[in-house]
Amino acid sequence: MPTSLSEGYPRSSGLVDVLDRVLDKGLVVAGDVKVSLAEVELLTIRIRLLICSIDKAEQIGLDWWKFDHHLSPGKQALSAENEELRKQVRALERRLLSLTRRRSAPAMR
Fold first, then answer.
1. 49-85: string of b/e by CB count within 10 Å (b at 16+)?
2. Which of 1, 15, 45, 51 has the smallest number of Cβ neighbours within 10 A?
3. Alpha-carbon 81 to chain mean position
4. 56, 22 contact by CB (below 8 A)
């Protein structure tokens, strides 16, 4: 009979250690799926899976999720708002320029 609760049962820290190592070092799974009919290749699917922490991914130069508008939809809205504000500023600058030209034109006469 076990003398403590942890004796006789597998330790969960083993799984935690494995997960910690995978996230720290990274794990790559790669494979190809090919579909052929009568020795004619119809479809090829390449599968590449990288499992690691975000810190590790950034360390090795993977940061595509920062620029993917599907993963950060707020950026697209901000970009559209920014472009609209730029158009308004340009229109105001043109109007200001035309007003200053009108005022300075009579003074030149």
1. eeebeeebbeeeeeeeeeeeeeeeeeeeeeeeeeeee
2. 1
3. 20
4. no
* DSSP letter, residue 65: G
**Token pair recorded at residue 17:** 């250690």
Scanning the structure block, which residue is given the tokens 């599968």?
47
The token duo for 65 is 């999720």
**Amino acid in the structure at residue 32:** D
Tokens of 69: 């508008």
From CA 75, how far away is CA 19, in angstroms rounded?
32
Span 55-104, pLDDT tens digits: 888 888 888 777 776 666 666 677 788 899 999 999 999 999 999 888 88
| CB contact at 8 A, 25 and 52 | yes
Tokens standing for 39? 């020795």
The rounded distance, in Å, linking the Cα atoms of 105 and 99 is: 10
CA distances (Å), 73 to each of 33, 47, 76, in order? 32, 26, 6
